[in-house]
């Protein structure tokens, strides 16, 4: 099933998480501008990761989730797209459902913090291969990729 890509600022994130727009400079000096989040995006003993990804179109067959920690996804130099689906419970046989799935566009400076238990794909470059960071609390939770019910999800421009 093909899903429309929506701008993250227009998405209902009530069940999914929260967004920080760090591209809106709050401080500046000669040759630089910066913004710092108003609160810690994720709690605890955090680790940060870096991903190089392919560009759209992609066919997403599986998604992952973390039952014990939030995950922050941080767009680096290019626009990225991520598929998200609300949490479905904590049983091992739970799975994301394509009818509940949304695909959102993150621009450089956007930080999406995904709530505990929310299903998410990897992020993919919108118009070209892209890079992004992710941050999470390290609780040694196993990562299990699960097939999307009635999937795959086709994400295209």
Automatic annotation (TrEMBL):
Tagged with keyword Disulfide bond: no
Keywords attached to this entry: Lyase, Purine metabolism
GO molecular function, one term: ureidoglycolate hydrolase activity
Matches recorded under SUPFAM superfamilies: RmlC-like cupins
A Pfam family reported for this protein in Swiss-Prot or TrEMBL: Ureidogly_lyase
GO terms (BP aspect): allantoin catabolic process; purine nucleobase metabolic process
Name by which UniProt lists this protein: Ureidoglycolate lyase
Species whose genome carries this gene: Diplocloster agilis
